Amino acid sequence: MPEVIEIPVNLAYFQLPEAVQARLQFLLDRQDAGEVLTLAERQEAEGLVDLAEFLSLLRSRC
Question: Which of 10, 43, 53, 58 is the least buried, fewest Cβ under 10 Å from its Cβ?
Fold first, then answer.
């Protein structure tokens, strides 16, 4: 049986800071508009999306 990892309650309510969310939205909007993101920008956007999805998953499990 897999080990259960307890998540502190306050971590479950953690959200991306407003400036980080704005940066992610900026990058996604540019991409949606057909602009080509640099490799660094694509990696940044992918990392932020992964983090946002992880936080969403945490919230859904608490």
Answer: 10
